[in-house]
Design goal:
It is a single chain. By secondary structure, the protein is mainly alpha-helical. Helices cover 65% and strands 8% of the residues. The protein has helices at residues 11-30, 37-48, 54-61, 65-77, 99-103, 105-120, 125-144, and strands at 52-53, 81-85, 93-97. Strands 1-3-2 form a three-stranded antiparallel β-sheet. A hairpin with a 7-residue loop joins strand 2 (81-85) and strand 3.
Length: 145
């Protein structure tokens, strides 16, 4: 018989649990702004470069077309973003931040930074850097498939 693997020690369980717990903690802190972690990913991408296509945002957020449409619909209802026709390709809609969406950048970035510091305060910086490097490599390899 082979070695028994404890499911709680499997890579997928450890990564999934870490992601869920971190996202839940950030979401609770962002609740006062009525923004979810998924919405924050979209906003953060737009803060870096405003006026992105829905497909680009879907790729950044790792979401399918229906999911990204729903996320952007909700951000639009909250008046945090607007969609505009792409002047180069009229089939595309570009997503832009509103003034209100832009105004959340500092506070939401602070929440993410503070929360990340809280959960990594007892982790050696080299270990953290190494863990991120490994996870990025795994993402890269899975996207190639």
């Amino acid at each position: 018989m082979g070695k028994k693997v404890k499911v709680e020690n499997s890579l997928s369980t450890v990564l999934g649990t870490t992601s869920r717990l971190l996202n839940n903690r950030i979401s609770k802190k962002m609740a006062t702004h009525q923004v979810t972690v998924e919405q924050w990913v979209i906003l953060a991408s737009l803060w870096r470069k405003d006026g992105q296509s829905q497909q680009t945002l879907a790729n950044v957020a790792n979401k399918n077309k229906a999911s990204i449409t729903h996320l952007i619909d909700n951000l639009e209802k909250r008046k945090l973003v607007v969609r505009q026709e792409d002047t180069v390709d009229r089939r595309n809609k570009l997503v832009f931040l509103t003034e209100e969406g832009q105004s959340l950048q500092e506070e939401l970035a602070k929440i993410v930074k503070t929360t990340t510091k809280e959960i990594t305060k007892n982790i050696d910086k080299k270990d953290l850097k190494s863990a991120k490097k490994v996870m990025k490599k795994m993402i890269e390899l899975m996207r190639e498939e």
